[in-house]
Each structure stands twice: as C-alpha cells, then as structure tokens.
Amino acid sequence: MINTLVDWFASAQAWLFQAVVQPLMFHAGFSEYLEDAFDGTEWFLIGVCELIVLFLILRPLEAVIPVHAFTDRRARLTDFIYTVLYRLGAFSMLVFFLVDPLMAKVTELLHLQGLNPFNLENLLPGFTDQPLITFLMYLLVLDLCEYWYHRAQHNVGWLWGLHSLHHSQQNMNLWSDDRNHLLDGLIHDVMLALVALAIGVEPTQYVLLVSVTRMLQSLQHANVRIHFGRLGDAIVVSPRFHRWHHAIGIGHESKGHGTMGGHNFGVLFAFWDILFRSAWFGKTFEHTGVRDQLPTASRPARDYGQGFWSQQWLGLKRMVEFARRSSR
User: Fold this and answer.
1) What residue numbers bound the domain in which 72 lies?
2) Strand, helix or coil at 326?
C-alpha cells in the first residue's frame, strides 16, 4: 500500500514537472535551475497533500469536538492564507536550496584543510541501514533545536515582537500553526536548514522531516478537545498541552506583568519541557491570545491587525518596540 502511494506521488510529481514547471522554467530562462525546480515540485505536492489531509481529518474533528465557537471567522480565513503560503513549499524550498550551496562550499573548504564534516549517522554506524532509526534520530535533534529557538522567541524582546503575531489568534484553529510573521518564518527556516545540513540531513529526508513536523503542529493548534493522557502528554505535544502554551497569562506571559517567559515550548516532544523545567500540565482548555489584547483601565487593547498585510506591518513595529525596551 505504501509503495503504491509512493509510486502515485512520484508519477504525479513527474507529470506536473514535465507538463507545467519545466516549460515555464525554459520560458523564463531559468533552465540551469531545473534540478531545484524538480525538488520544488515535490515540496508543492506534499503541501497539497497536507492541505487535503487537514481538510478531511482535522476540519471535521473541529466541528464534532470543538473547544470553543468561532467569534471571528475572518481571522481563521487569514490563518488559512498563511497555511497555503507556507505549506506549498515557497519558504522551506527557497531557504534550504539557498543554504545548501553555502554549506557545500564550507564542506569543500574543510576538505582542503583535511577536515571531514560532521554527520550524525556516524555516531551510530550500526544503524545506518535502518532508515527509521536515522529518521527518528534526526527528528530528535531538530526538535531539540526547535525547542530552544521557540524558547528564545519568548525571551528575546525583538523575537517576541514578531512571534507574538502567532499568539494573537484568539480563535485558535488547525490553520493557526502557520500564522507567523514572514521575517520570523524566514529566520526559523534558515536556522532549521542550517542545523539539518550541518548534521548531514539529505534533501529528501529534510522534506519528510518538515512534513511530519508540520502535520503534528496542525493537530496541536486545532480547535479540538484532545489530549493523550498523563503519559502521552509527557511524551508528545497534544492539543491540550500546547493550548496551555497559548493560554493568556500562563502560556507565554508567566512572569506576571510582562510578556516574556512561559511554558510548554516543545514543538513535537513534550519531554524537552520536562527536562528543562518549562512544562505546565493543565487539565482544562483555556482561552488563547496575548494579555495586551485585553484592555485595562490604564491602556487600550493592542491591535495585532486583521488582514495579512496589516499583521505583517504591525509585527515589524512591535519588533522595533520590544527591541528598544530590551536595550534600556
């Protein structure tokens, strides 16, 4: 069954590339990039498959076991625009294949100095013929890096200025994972691509690693009353565990009056939060958002923007604002 699906996917990729992508590349004068374009076609098709699966599985679940009723359907539509932008491969493909030549040049220079680049698989030579083992090994290392980058997003002022857009969704839903500022997404993807290339991840492995991560993160953000039990929530990030990360005043503002700090930074695996003492195991499904979205007697509610472009502009303004605060 799996082999059949793989064959179907390969056939679809070949057809789309030959019928659409390749003629366009020749017409635009970019024939030297045909190999990268073929890989880009794979990213695009995987993104399409992800969108179909999300519609068929998570969307019905949100209708059957929702946490809350939607009060702002426009906000959900905007999240969907972000998802289409990120999932169809534009960002990840661009970053990976821009960074890859740079890493190849560095590797060449190291060879000239008699140094061999690091490869994570060399640490477990007996498992190099076990693709599942090596895949899980890469997944763990990348997820650990994601944990610390995510934690930095909540503790470095200018990064939080960008990342707070992600947390400003008060109607969190299956599309909210991709509700990120474009600059924030670019920095994140460059970091992830650098780490992946540094530990020896091949392009085909990277595509699968990114896809698995994105699908699980869509589940985490879905508007569904789902958790994995006491043991499961301590291993894999569930929708309830991650919802506490988005909870107003607890998940990312736990230092009290400020906006920094928080809990549950794990992207895929919750045991990083247990190991580094940032876990919070609440048993309820809390409201999401950022504290300054709620007006007080001393200040009005902060506007995070309604449409895509207003959210991008206001995110840049917050980045500058929080950077200035941190420098004082």
Assistant:
1) 2-327
2) helix
For 194-228, the pLDDT digits (tens) are: 888 788 787 777 878 888 899 999 999 999 999 99
Helix (H, G, I), strand (E, B) or coil at 106: helix
Q: Is 201 helix (H, G, I), strand (E, B) or coil?
A: coil
Closest by alpha carbon to 268, among 180, 162, 192?
Answer: 192
- 245-278 tens-digit pLDDT: 999 877 666 554 445 678 899 999 999 999 999 9
Q: Rg of the chain over CA atoms, in angstroms? A: 21
pTM above 0.85, yes or no: yes
- Helix (H), strand (E) counts: the chain: 14, 0
The long-range contacts involving 70-78, CB below 8 angstroms and separated by at least 24 positions, are 70/171, 70/173, 70/223, 71/170, 71/171, 72/170, 72/171, 73/171, 74/306, 75/169, 75/170, 75/171, 75/306, 76/171, 76/173, 76/175, 78/179, 78/306, 78/307, 78/308, 78/311
CB contact set of 78 (below 8 Å; sequence gap of 6+): 179, 306, 307, 308, 311
- What is the number of residues in the chain? 328
Distance, CA of 68 to CA of 14 (rounded, Å):
43
Number of domains composing the chain: 1
